[in-house]
């Protein structure tokens, strides 16, 4: 009888640690009209250096997701779920430690409409310098500020100027540079190209692409699906506070599964060929969104079952929250 070779069984198997893990995240805001359930059971995972694109119609919870990761929800609360970075829970951490070690240092955010967040009475240099000071940066401040400015294609001379002396595109680059000052591992960019002309948009996209190549991870939040295909490794399509579909960019763009993703992709204008489509109806209210599929009353494939909560049906690289793929 052949002798069986002994296989060494490792004592404990630990799967590779995710760079960022968001699990079952639900967030709500208290309003006069009732509690707005802005996020419901949202989850995804990123490896080191990976980037995620989040797309969806207005008010579906995109910014709330970014703000929850930054622990900067105003008037909102986390009802359930977990967020961890390299295995460390961000939600259980004392605010003091999160603020000293994570917010702006390891995770930073470029806010929606960030151009207007620059303080008009201070030069770019004093605003950058304040960020470094607040985080106890002890190296060569001027060198770091110049490095951040040039990394976004701004002349170091811009540091001496006031915000009103800069064009819209330059301001957007300045706030991007400010988010990069402390060399974070993750940058959450909320609509980084909205309100910019197409040339400046292209510059910002190229800049994000370059930073990604150098190892920075991004979560890019946008209405505009076409910019995601260039930067995101993974895409999450949000609808009514939930992720309707999650997968690699290749799969989500190449073979979209959820009828909402299909509708959204069909609505991107094309240079030639058929007219862009549109999705009839409007998104659900988030105060009492109901227990069935949130897309049901707009869905071309609606079935009886859709009145109950759809499962997260596995796809090649993620899932589609839809009864069609049960
Ligand atoms: N501070 C707040 N207080 C009360 N409700 C809020 C607050 N912030 C967001 N909401 C509500 O939460 C829901 C999700 O908002 P959120 O800003 O996350 O959506 P979004 O997808 O980023 O929208 P947009 O694309 O228009 O920026 C919306 O119904 C919004 O009205």
From TrEMBL:
PROSITE patterns: ABC_TRANSPORTER_2. Residues 20-265 form the ABC transporter domain. One of its GO terms (biological process) is peptide transport. Gene3D superfamilies: P-loop containing nucleotide triphosphate hydrolases. GO terms for molecular function: ATP binding; ATP hydrolysis activity. SUPFAM superfamilies: P-loop containing nucleoside triphosphate hydrolases. Keywords: ATP-binding, Nucleotide-binding, Transport. InterPro entries: AAA+_ATPase (IPR003593), ABC_transporter-like_ATP-bd (IPR003439), Oligopep_ABC_C (IPR013563), P-loop_NTPase (IPR027417). CDD domains: ABC_NikE_OppD_transporters (cd03257). Transmembrane segments: none annotated. This is ABC-type dipeptide/oligopeptide/nickel transport system, ATPase component.
């Amino acid at each position: 009888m052949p002798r069986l070779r002994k296989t060494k069984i490792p004592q404990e198997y630990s799967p590779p640690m995710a760079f960022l893990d968001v699990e079952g995240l639900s967030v709500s805001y208290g309003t006069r009209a009732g509690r707005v359930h802005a996020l419901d059971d949202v989850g995804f995972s990123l490896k080191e250096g990976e980037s995620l694109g989040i797309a969806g119609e207005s008010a579906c919870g995109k910014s709330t997701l970014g703000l929850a990761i930054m622990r900067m929800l105003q008037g909102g609360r986390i009802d359930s779920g977990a967020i961890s970075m390299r295995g460390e829970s961000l939600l259980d951490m004392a605010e003091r430690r999160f603020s000293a070690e994570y917010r702006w240092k390891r995770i930073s955010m470029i806010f929606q409409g960030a151009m207007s967040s620059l303080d008009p009475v201070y030069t770019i240099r004093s605003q950058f310098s304040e960020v470094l000071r607040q985080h106890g940066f002890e190296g060569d401040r001027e060198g770091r500020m110049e490095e951040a400015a040039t990394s976004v294609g701004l002349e170091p001379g811009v540091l001496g100027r006031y915000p009103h002396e800069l064009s819209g595109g330059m301001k957007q680059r300045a706030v991007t540079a400010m988010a990069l000052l402390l060399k974070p591992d993750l940058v959450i960019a909320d609509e980084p190209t909205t309100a910019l002309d197409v040339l400046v948009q292209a510059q910002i996209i190229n800049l994000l692409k370059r930073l990604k190549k150098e190892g920075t991870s991004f979560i890019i939040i946008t209405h505009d699906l076409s910019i995601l295909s260039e930067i995101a490794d993974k895409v999450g399509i949000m609808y009514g506070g939930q992720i309707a579909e999650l997968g690699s960019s290749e799969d989500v763009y190449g073979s979209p599964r959820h009828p909402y993703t299909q509708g959204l992709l069909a609505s991107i204008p094309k240079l030639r060929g058929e007219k862009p489509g549109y999705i009839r109806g409007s998104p659900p209210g988030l105060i009492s969104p109901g227990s069935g599929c949130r897309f049901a009353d707009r869905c071309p494939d609606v079935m009886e079952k859709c009145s109950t909560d759809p499962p997260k049906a596995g796809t090649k690289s993620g899932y589609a929250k839809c009864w069609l793929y049960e």
